[in-house]
Amino acid sequence: MTTGILQAPVVGQASSGELHRAIDWRGAFWVASGVPALVLFSIGGIAGTAGKVAFLVWIVSMLMGFIQAFTYAEIAGLFPSKSGGASVYGAAAWVRYSKLIAPLSVWCNWIAWSPVLSLGCSIAAAYILNALAPVPGADNAAVLAWVQSHASSITAESPRVVEWLAANSGKTAADGVAALLSADAISAVTPAVRSWTLHAGTLGPVSFSLNAAFFIGALLMLLTFAIQHRGILGTANVQKYLGLIVIIPMLIVGIVPIITGQIDWSNYTPLAPLKAAYAPEMGSWDIGGWTLVLGGMFIAAWSTYAFETAICYTSEFKNPKTDTVRAILYSGVLCLVLFSLVPFAFQGVLGLEGMLATPIVDGSGVAEAMGKMVSSSGWVTNLFVMLMIFALLLSIMTAMAGSSRTLYQGSYDGWLPKYLSHVNEHGAPTRAMWTDLIVNLGVLAIACADATSFFFILAVSNVGYIIFNFLNLNAGWIHRVDNGDVVRPWRAPTLLLGLGVLFAYVNAVFLGAGAKVWNPNALWAGLIAAALIVPVFWFRHYVQDRGKFPDHMLADLGLTTADLSKRRAGALPYVALIVGAAIVLASNWFFQLPA
C-alpha cells in the first residue's frame, strides 16, 4: 500500500497520495443522495415539539436551505483543487480577519456531520432489533397466555394498583390490574436481548450503554468504512444503487397517501403550536409556542441544509467548473421534493396523536409507520423497514465521505493535525475515516442509551452546524469583496447571495431560541464543543507549523500568505460576528419554553 501527504491534485491526473479526479456531478449527486434519509432522524422529534406546524417547519427549512445553496455553489467554484465542502471554502474568506475563526468553520462542519454515523447506526440498529426481536404487543398470544396464568399476582388492594390509580384519575381498580398485568406480561415475554447490556452508566447530562443496539450499530459502521475504503468512485457506484432503492420508496411514501385519499386534511389545522412538547393539547402563538416551533426549525436545519455535502468533492470532480454547481443544485431539488412530501404525508395520515406516539418520537417505529402508509400488508411493511435500513446506511455513507474529507482538507490546509493528510492507493482519506470511526463509536454508546441522549447529541451537533452555516453564508460576500477579481465558474444572483446573509441571522435566532427545546444545556455544550478547536488549531499552527500556513492554502485564489494582510472588507466581518453573537444571546434570553 502506498500512501502519503497529499499534493494539490491536477485535473486529469491522480497519483498515489492524492484524492483522485474520478467522478462527475452525477457521482456527487449519488453520494449526497443519502441526505433525504436524514428525515428519519428527527421527523418524530419535530412533530413532538412543533405539533401541527411540523409539516410547515420542514417545507420552510428546506426552502431556506435551497436558497443558501446558491452561495455555497459560488464559493465552491473558486476552489477547484480543494475537497471538504463549504466550510473549507468559507474558511479561506475568514482567514484574513482571524486565524481562529477560519478553522472554527471547518471544525464546526465536522462536529455537525460526523455524528450522522453514530445517530444513523443507532436508528438502523433499532430497526434491526425490532425485526429480529420485536417487543410483543398487548394482544400477542404469548402475552395473553402470561396474563391468564398470572392473573392472581396483582389484586385491587396492591400498592402498585393504588399508585397507578393516583396517576390515572377516572380509572377503576380493575383497569389498573389489567394495565399492570399487561405491562408485566410484555416485559416477561420480551426477548432478553432487548434489555441486555454489557455496561451502562451516565456521563454528565446523558447516559451511555454498550447494549445490543450498540454492537449492531458498530458492525454497520465498520461495513460503511469497508465500502468507503475503495475511494470516491467505488463509493459513488455503491450509493447509486442504494440511492435508487431508497429514493423511489420515499417518493412512494410521499405520493401514495395523497393519491389514495388517506390524507386527513384536519390534521393540518388549526395551524398552531403545542401547549407543551410531546403533549397533544393545542397551544397558542405566544412566546412558549414560538419557542417550540423555533426548536423545530433549529433541528430541521440539520437535515434540510445538509445536501451542501454535494460540494465536498470538488478536487475529485473531473470537471470542477461545471460539476460543482450541478451537483449541489440537483441534490437540492431532490431534497426539496422529498423533505416536503414525506413529512406532509406522514402528518396527514398519522395525525397529531399518531405523531406523538412513543415509537414515532424516538424514531424506532418510523419505518413501520411509513410501510403501513403504503399498504396494510405485513410483507410490504417489512419491506419498507428493510428499505429504510438501506436509507440509513446511505446517509451514514454520505456522512463518512463528507466528514472525512473535511478532516483531510482541514489538515492539508493547516487547520487540523498533520496526520489527517493521508490517503490510501484508492484516494480514500483513511486516517480521517479512522478518526471518524473511533470518535463515533463513543458517540454511538450515548445515542443507543435512550431518546433523551440521542436528541442531546443531535442538538449539540446542530449547534456546530448553525455556526458553520453562519460563517459560510457571510463568507459569500466576504469573497466578493476581497476576491472579486477571481474568475467564478458560476456566480450566484446577488439577491440570493443577500438572502443567504439574511438567513445567517435567522439561523442565529434558531440557535439561541431552539437549542434549549431539546436540552437546557445543548447550546452551551455545543459552544464548548466548538471551542475545542482552540487547542487543536494551536497545536497544528504553532507547534507543528511554527506559526505559518502552507503556501498552497490559497493557491486556487492566486494568493500567498503575504496577501492575507489585505483586508478590503475592513471591520465589517467583525461587525457581522458581533451582531450574530448578540442575536444568539438575545434569542436565548427572550424565548422561553412553556411553563
UniProtKB/TrEMBL annotation:
<feature type="transmembrane region" description="Helical">
    <location>
        <begin position="379"/>
        <end position="401"/>
    </location>
</feature>
<feature type="transmembrane region" description="Helical">
    <location>
        <begin position="53"/>
        <end position="73"/>
    </location>
</feature>
<keyword id="KW-0812">Transmembrane</keyword>
<feature type="transmembrane region" description="Helical">
    <location>
        <begin position="493"/>
        <end position="515"/>
    </location>
</feature>
<feature type="transmembrane region" description="Helical">
    <location>
        <begin position="208"/>
        <end position="229"/>
    </location>
</feature>
<protein>
    <submittedName>
        <fullName>Amino acid permease</fullName>
    </submittedName>
</protein>
<feature type="transmembrane region" description="Helical">
    <location>
        <begin position="327"/>
        <end position="346"/>
    </location>
</feature>
<dbReference type="Pfam" id="PF13520">
    <property type="entry name" value="AA_permease_2"/>
</dbReference>
<feature type="transmembrane region" description="Helical">
    <location>
        <begin position="571"/>
        <end position="591"/>
    </location>
</feature>
<feature type="transmembrane region" description="Helical">
    <location>
        <begin position="28"/>
        <end position="47"/>
    </location>
</feature>
<keyword id="KW-1003">Cell membrane</keyword>
<dbReference type="GO" id="GO:0022857">
    <property type="term" value="F:transmembrane transporter activity"/>
</dbReference>
<feature type="transmembrane region" description="Helical">
    <location>
        <begin position="287"/>
        <end position="307"/>
    </location>
</feature>
<feature type="transmembrane region" description="Helical">
    <location>
        <begin position="106"/>
        <end position="129"/>
    </location>
</feature>
<feature type="transmembrane region" description="Helical">
    <location>
        <begin position="437"/>
        <end position="457"/>
    </location>
</feature>
<dbReference type="InterPro" id="IPR050367">
    <property type="entry name" value="APC_superfamily"/>
</dbReference>
<keyword id="KW-0472">Membrane</keyword>
<dbReference type="GO" id="GO:0005886">
    <property type="term" value="C:plasma membrane"/>
</dbReference>
<dbReference type="InterPro" id="IPR002293">
    <property type="entry name" value="AA/rel_permease1"/>
</dbReference>
<feature type="transmembrane region" description="Helical">
    <location>
        <begin position="241"/>
        <end position="263"/>
    </location>
</feature>
<keyword id="KW-1133">Transmembrane helix</keyword>
<feature type="transmembrane region" description="Helical">
    <location>
        <begin position="521"/>
        <end position="539"/>
    </location>
</feature>
